[in-house]
């Protein structure tokens, strides 16, 4: 289900909506089939849409089972693009809320970098990298600097 985003900003809005709606197909529609992801959770990398689908299903299923909604905000957004490729970096804040009460449960902010490619006049994400700064004293990720 390719939605066909003519602007990079549209892809990012689709990302936010798909996470909130926990819509796996909508979420995956913005990624290339040969996506390469460096994530700060679990594995070193994720290659290909099939493996990414498994990770996304696990993520969204966990949110549903816990009765949570996840809101995504993009801050400090920088978009550089030419006619066929684009580069984006930003701070992405994920805030979890109880679905029934709207009570805020937790929040964290990651640094994200995206590589985009235009295919058939639509932008898709071909590379994604998320990271957290590390506290050198403890070796733990620093989730709340932003």
UniProtKB/TrEMBL annotation:
<dbReference type="InterPro" id="IPR032710">
    <property type="entry name" value="NTF2-like_dom_sf"/>
</dbReference>
<protein>
    <recommendedName>
        <fullName>SnoaL-like domain-containing protein</fullName>
    </recommendedName>
</protein>
<dbReference type="Pfam" id="PF13474">
    <property type="entry name" value="SnoaL_3"/>
</dbReference>
<feature type="domain" description="SnoaL-like">
    <location>
        <begin position="8"/>
        <end position="134"/>
    </location>
</feature>
<dbReference type="InterPro" id="IPR037401">
    <property type="entry name" value="SnoaL-like"/>
</dbReference>
């Amino acid at each position: 289900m390719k939605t066909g985003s003519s602007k990079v900003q549209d892809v990012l809005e689709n990302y936010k909506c798909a996470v909130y709606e926990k819509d796996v197909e909508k979420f995956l529609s913005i990624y290339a089939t040969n996506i390469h992801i460096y994530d700060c959770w679990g594995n070193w990398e994720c290659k290909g849409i099939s493996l990414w689908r498994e990770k996304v299903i696990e993520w969204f299923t966990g949110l549903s089972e816990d009765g949570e909604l996840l809101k995504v905000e993009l801050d400090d957004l920088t978009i550089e693009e030419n006619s066929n490729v684009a580069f984006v970096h930003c701070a992405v804040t994920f805030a979890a809320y109880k679905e029934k009460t709207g009570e805020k449960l937790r929040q964290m902010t990651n640094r994200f970098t995206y590589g985009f490619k235009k295919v058939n006049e639509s932008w898709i994400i071909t590379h994604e990298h998320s990271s957290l700064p590390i506290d050198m004293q403890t070796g733990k990720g620093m989730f709340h600097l932003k």
